[in-house]
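During the first year of the project, the team set up a workflow for recording each protein of interest as an amino acid sequence followed immediately by a discrete structure-token representation. This format lets reviewers and collaborators read both layers of information side by side without switching files. As required by the reporting guidelines, we include two representative entries from the current panel. The first entry is reproduced here exactly as it appears in our internal archive.
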Amino acid sequence: MSAAGTTHPRLAARRGGGSGTWWSKAVLRSVEEAAYSAEDLRRGRALARAGAVGAITVSDGAAVAAVGEGQDTFTVEVTVPVLDDSDASAFTELVAAEAGRIAALMAGELPHTLVEAVEEAGVELLPYGGELGSACTCEAWLDPCPHALAVLTQLAWLIAADPFVLTHLRGLSRERVLRELHRIHQPRGGSEEDRDRAGEGPEELDDLVVAEDAAVRAARLLQQESPFDAM
């Protein structure tokens, strides 16, 4: 797991009600695929809805959280394979390739056309059940145990509001994506005046940084106020 991580605040208990997003539903389907039994899945979802999962720290390829059940508290780490350098580069190139994709991500949207293009390039962004690993201090022989399923369920809720949680799990943090997009848009050769005339200046990405700040604030509000799921 990478040393740099992003900690997402604990989510309050919820009773469901929201329908989520198409990409968070896809993540939830992978959680269902990973579960050993319907009972484990129900127990994990119940823990997630009860607010039993603490703050979740997401790093490249992993997420860590504490889960309380009864008088006990367990530490859970769930893992997702990170994209290799080639796939990571392909992803950012495809984000930069079409107008609107960057702004959509900043606004908390994951365009279906982007995911389709990524998949056509042979890059797996959305995980499948067999990719989800976990370890829990409850020492259950199951992988994932209900505590891990609870963390994975809440990760799907976070991903619904902010697709960068998903990319971070794949090894592409928000900061790395922005850095790579800056690199892609960095003019190659020519004078500054020529680049400005060509519309290749840094203003577009400067505007996106402002949009990012707004999107982060909006995502936090969504996490606090909008109950995702029947998930």
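The second entry, processed by the same pipeline in the following quarter, appears below.
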Amino acid sequence: MNLRELLEALSRRGDLAVVRRPVSVDREAAAVIAALGGRPVLFESCQPGSRRVAANLLASRDTIALGLGAPADGLPARLVDALRNPRQPLRTAHAPCQEQVEPEVDLEALPILTHGPRDAGPYVTAGVLIVADPETGPNAAFHRLLRLDRHRFAARLVEGRGTHTAWMRTDRDLPVAVCLGAPIQVLVAAAMSPPAGVDELHIAEALAPTPVVRCQTVPLDVPAESEIILEGRLTHELAPEGPFIDLTGTYDIVREQPVLIIDHITRRRDPVYQALLPGGPEHGLLMGMPREPSIIDAVASVCRVLRVHITPGGASWLHAVVQIDKQHPEDGRRAIEAAFRGHGSLKHVVIVDADVDPFDPRQVEWAIATRVQADRDVVVFPDQPGSSLDPSAHHVPGRKATTAKMGIDATIPWNTPTIAPDRESFARVTYPPADPKTYLEA
């Protein structure tokens, strides 16, 4: 679905909150979005400029499933299939995102939100940047953008990731397109981590039809049904970026980051600007859930994997629970190592058996309590590449953060390589069902 189709679907279900009174983009809109606790919202008049702004559109697995036309319990399989079988989208000559061309570039006319009291300024938070790596080809990814003035942003590039690598491979300005209000499948695909050389727009096409159109001033294809397209160039000029609220809900540090100059803007008629509340439920789910397929793929190469859950308590980024069908005494340890390969920013992972629900934190903690001996089942990997989102990691400007990583094998231990475990000794006791009402009636 494109953004407008999702808004209509949410409205029909009665799930869309509509704010008709004027709301300021300077912290007031963010406060309302936060107060709604993940409920989708459409502001009809964000000030200044009386622009429409949508937020919380993908704050639950149910709304993501709605946007992809899939059942919520079928999302993991759908994402894994798209990751494994990307498809090339069709290119169109006429696109909604190019219905109108702005006569001049004025980023201050966009309803870009300021979110918190220490923000460096207004930030684009739901923008998908598209670049072409000189060696591996197109890449689409989320990047927060600090508005500096009417023509320029400071773009946060995570070291070693796709956009940063492409930018480092050229000493010239790198052509860039920023997609605002992109179709749902594009947002999900842009949050995934396919191998280098796999175009995220091809993953989006595998999730749902995603026609693309050529930009008017840069040699890049963009989703034709986006609301707004900013065309420009990522320069090698640097500017301070931050502080800003990160996925963890804490403020990120100030860094020198590349300046993005916008030279051209196209858009739909009466466009809807999409905002994403930093540190909110949509931020967490949209960033975390699309990484689950890459963990599934990695763990599947070493053992039988059933389900993966990147947990909200781990900031939807740093912690995961992996459910496996254990067939060998070393499967738990192998799954730990594979999970870290599948999601490089993962910090802590817990491996559980098929009888433990990875989405139920009480069951996961119970498995740790009853099946783990720390000297046998806890594995620590010191001085590993980590996540810039982790405030406890070791941060050096211009270099990837480093951290210690820990895996917990909370599966039932096997006595020997050839003798399966005594599962009954580790099983949770269950009682037969009974209806209390029949016993409490007078």
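For the second entry, the following points were noted during internal review. Residues 331-342 form the longest helix (12 residues). The mean pLDDT is 92. Both points are flagged for discussion at the upcoming steering committee meeting.
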